[in-house]
Amino acid sequence: MTELRTHADEIAAQFSDHLDIDTDEVEDRLQQLVTEYKVPVDEARRSLTNSYLDEAGLDRDELGRGGAEAVLVDEIDQDEQWVDVTVKVVDLWEPRSDSISQVGLVGDESGRTKFVAFSTSELEELDEGKNYKLANVVTDEYQGDYSIKLNRTTTITELDEEIEVGDSSTTVDGALVDVQSGSGLIKRCPEEGCTRVLQNGRCSEHGEVDGEFDLRIKAVLDDGHEVHDVIFNREATEELTGIGLEDAKQQAQDALDTSVVADGIRTDILGRYYRVTGPTLGRYVLANEFEQLRRPTDTAAMLAEARADQ
User: Which of 5, 113, 198, 216 has the fewest CB atoms within 10 Å of its CB?
Assistant: First the structure.
């Protein structure tokens, strides 16, 4: 079965209770978008799904209600699936947008995942440290990272039972050997629930938008045996570099070039040794904690250095 056929099957199944469409029709429309208009497959699927939503007179929250499967958070491996999870609220963060009422981490025995609740959903707020069954949440995927979104159809039930959260954190040591493209001063999509980084002023889902500035570092640590992709979010980037968001915006404005921020960061941190601890999402380690090390952490290198000093 081709990739387009798989997408077509899934879209047709989503709307089977609402519209009289078949897989062949969906596949033809996907084929036209991808082949004739050169639209990326994921964007073509989103566009077509939105078209069918309009045709059916539904919003995304109403699509796929009921029949949600109870899953562990580490079992989430598909986008736009309706699931039930039983979790503990591990951490709450400050929302970056007025459209978001809560954002943070929830977890169960299998690990942790990000959650987002939207202001328009008018849901009761979750309390850090408490346990809940969250029924009818929607999975979301971006660049291999999965999260869940609470919506107005989500039901929240507080539980008396204690949920042990699995430790999905990892620690990596190594030399910071690369600061990748997409680091420094970036712009994110301002649309509700979307945090995608803009490319040339364009969001892959929402098209041309006026972005909101943010800071991040996409780094590569080499421990002497393998390399690790690490992401420092805005707070971690500010702590690591001493550069605040307003400072970064001023630097870019003075130089008429946003790349000066990444260039400065690269000069400051490249070649230094760090220990980074945080959850692994997709191929990335998220830098929740970090420290600069004085020397290489490779055991062989340390032994060689010790013998040389004798």
Answer: 5
